[in-house]
Structure formats: structure tokens, C-alpha cells
Fold each of these.
Amino acid sequence: RAQLGEPYVWGGAGPSGWDCSGLTMMAYSSVGVSIGGHGSTSQYNYLKSAGKLVNIADLRAGDLLFYSDGGSTTGTKYHVALYVGNGKMIEAPYPGQVVREVSIRYGDLVPYAGRPTG
């Protein structure tokens, strides 16, 4: 939550701005956990290959939420956000916006979340 209000910057990995995958990469690298680098698709594929995907019905705080056209598990993931519990997520949404906490959007949500730890 320390990054709430920080600006969205395309390709940003802090500290002056973030894009979605830069934010999730930083959150996990700050505690010594790799999630596969910068990029929503690369993070999803890394976690999938490591056997760290869970059904979206079993979400826990800290899980990564992925978005792709139609919620496809095989397509390009265009967005990633950090689930924080109680139906909320933290995301760096798009240019002109800031890192924010919002309710989960279910449109285009991939049916599997990434759980880098546990």
C-alpha cells in the first residue's frame, strides 16, 4: 500500500512511477521472491510453469490477478494486479492514473490467480 497514489508510468518499475507488472514485480522482489520479471504475460507464464496458479475461487491476499481478452488462459495477459483481500486489489491501471485500491473487475479476469508464495 506504500505506493498508493504514485503515478502510472509505462514500463515503470519505480521509484518515480509504476506500470502494472512493475508494481507487482517490486512488491515481490522487495521480499526476495521472483515472479518472472517485468511483463504481465511473463509473470503469468513463470508462475504457471512453477505450478503456482490457483483457482480464482480460492483467492488469498497477496495473489496476483491476471487479465486477458475474454479471460483467456492462453492469450496475452494485458494487466496484472495484487489481491489484498475483501474483494479488493491494488493496481497501476493506465496512463493518467495513479496506483489505487479498487474492487476486483471480473470482466476479462483469467480464472487462475498466481500465488508466488505458500
Amino acid sequence: MATRFRVHLSLGSNLGDRTANLARAVSGLAALPDTKVSAVSRVWETAPWGVADQPVFHNLAVEIGTALGPLELLNAVKGLETRLGRGPGFRWGPRLVDVDVVLWESLILDTPALSLPHPRFRERAFVLWPLAEIAPGAVDPVTGRTVAELADAMRAAAAPETAQPLAPLAWNA
């Protein structure tokens, strides 16, 4: 496979065996055509965002190399979510698994289906802190700031209980 694009994803789960759900999702990403998982952060336990009255999340960040295009990858990860058991729900509600495309190298994209970089990733500790573990030098093409700079700024402003690192994820390639 000729890997062409370096892409960063955010994964989350707050239903069922959260860590096992994430492991299945990472294995599913590794099984996508023309895609290789190159880095996985530790699992982080994080407070819900948007709707507070729900179980806490387990989140992590994944770096992949892929020859898929942005909309192809989006369709692939949405199909993966469905195969893993994610059903219909409400925005920011509980979910078995959620996979978001966060950064796609220096690409800025705004379509009805996909916006890159993810429009709210700069506001979310559950995205930034795990992402800073695996891609501190990745640059937000909108602000020109690195993920490490964005994460440090958020750490300075956020309550420490917002996100806590747990352990590395065991998953099958």
C-alpha cells in the first residue's frame, strides 16, 4: 500500500465495556483498505461533553496512514461504528463507539458531511490531551498552532478531573 495521508482520529465510548469497544474500533481501523494504524494513545477517562447526565467516557487518539480520501474514510468509519453496534442516538448522547476524523495533515475542508479540521477539537480535552500524546507536533491548519500548544493552553484552563489518563490499549492488528 502506498500510504499518502497522515490522519488523526478521536475515538470514544461510554456504554458497555468501554475499553473493549475502543480496542475493537482500533482493530477495525487497522482492517480498513489501504489503511495502517501508526500510533494509539493511552485510554483517557473523560467527563461527558455537551450532555452531562450520562456515563463517563473512555477516549483515545489514533494516527493512521491511509490512501483513502477524506469522504471515503468518513464513510468507512461510520460503517465501522455501525458494525460495532452503534445505533441511532442524540447529539452528544451516550454511545457504544464514536469515531471522529480530527486532522488530515494541512487540509482545510468544509462540506455538509465533513469539516476538517474537526470544528470543535480545540475545545475538547478528550480530543486534545490524547492527541498530544501521539502527535504533539501536528499543526492545526486554521490556527497554525501545534497540538501540544493547544493541549497546554487547555490544561492551564481546565479542571484536572476533566480528563485522566488510564492505561495503554491492548488491541489486535
Amino acid sequence: MFEEISLFVAFFGSSLAAIWDLKTTEIPDKIPHTMILIAIIIAIARSFYEQSYLPLINSLVCGGLLFAFGFILYYSGQWGGGDAKVLSAIGFLIPNMLKNSWFEKFFPFPLAEMVSYTINVFFIGTFYMLLYSFILALLNKKIISFFSKEVKASTSLIAIFSLSLFFIFIGLNIYLCYVFEVPVSLKFVLTNSFLPLIFTVGIFLIWKFTKSVEEVGFKKRIPVSKLKVGDVLAESKIWEGITQKDLIKIKKSGKRYVVIKEGVRFAPAFPLALFFTLYFGDIFLFLFRLAI
């Protein structure tokens, strides 16, 4: 019973936060706060039922750790405050969910579930953000144009870097063949030099693409008259919307225009990662199964 209620609260709450984030770019504090309150009530009820302090302690430990982790990302400018709070709220619920994590072999429960879910959030979140960025680029041709110009401007650098890296990989593969006493094969050396080169250049191009999306798709120059509470200034190092007090101050400053920024609505990654964890387990184990 406790497991089912916790799962429902985690999935329903994170889904509600995702919908709100997609619609308004903000997550109301009342959603994660309510999730945390319900999580603590469930933990207290389970502690009474099992005559043990562990359910409550586990809930507080997991929630506290993910709260700290989420706000490190927030203060480093990687996440919004709402994302950090939703992750924390799910952390408070995790100890009362079903135990099905491969990480239990390496971490004591409930840390196993916490590690498993957090890693899934980042893997699923990465694919989700790339998909989001590609769709945005298709809708905004200026992003593709800007990206093309950036790649063309870096063509010489990419060519020199790729050629240098290719010879480094060749040397490294020959060295490893001698170290592990494996016969040196031209096919083996070239294949194991070319594939990591493609991967490295691919990562560089993805980085260039995401920077293009950030510069063209997520930044807008608007009149101060259209600035509203909750907008995030491009100069802000953390994802914190301006307050009514900030808005009045900016309008009194005499500025005519300001640059604001948006970001990928990351909240949908939380219910998606939860769904993935429940039905497929840990992403490392899932990918390993696909590989074999």
C-alpha cells in the first residue's frame, strides 16, 4: 500500500509539474512542497506501522541528499529552482517505492534507488533535451542558419583537430596492442581509431548545436514595457525570475530594452525517468541487455 501511494504521488506530482512547466516555463512551489509533505506523512505512517524509525530516516536522508544535489545544479546555473525541488520531492518518496534496483548490489537501500533514479533522470533528460532542441530548430530556421555559420567558421579547426586526434588514437591503439599482447591488425587499429574520432567530433557538433539553440532560440531582446515578473534576465547566472521589486527597479533605470533567456523545459524528464525506471530498471543494465 505504501509503495503504490508513493509511486502515484511521485508520478502524478512530477507529471503535473511537467505540464505546468511546458505551459508557463515555471513550476509552482506548491507542487513539490505538497509532494514532500505527503512523502513525510507516508514515511511517518510507515514508521508507526512497522514500529521502526527507518522509513522516516530513509525518506529524510534521500530527500535531503537530492535537495542538496539539485540546488548545487541550481546555483551553478544548470537548473531552475523548480526542477531542483521536484527532484528533491521524488527523493523523499523514493524510500517507500518498490525495491527493484540493480544498484542495490553496490549501495544500501534506499541509496540504491536514489542513485538509479538520478542517473536515469540525466540519461533520459539528455535525450529529451536534444529532441526538444531539434524540434525547436525545425520550427526556427534562424537556429539552423546560425549553426551552419558556426560550423563553417570552425571547419579548419575541426579538420586539424580531427586529423591530430586520429593519429593520437592510432598511436594509442598500437601501444595498447603491445601492452595487452594483442596482434597488431590494420583493420583493428583503424576501426578503433575511427569510431572514437566520430564520437568525439559528434559530441563537439552537438555542443555547437546546443549553443546555437541557446543563443538564437532561448534569448530574446524585448522592450522593458513587455518585461514581466518571472522573466529571467540573460545576464543572470542562476535561473531565477525577476520579482515585482526587480521589475520596478529596471523600469526606473531608464533602459529601453533588455535581453531575457529561456531554457529547455526540463520537468518532463522526471516522470519519463520514473516511468523508465519502473518498467525497464536501471539504464546501465538496460543498455547492457541490448548490447548482448
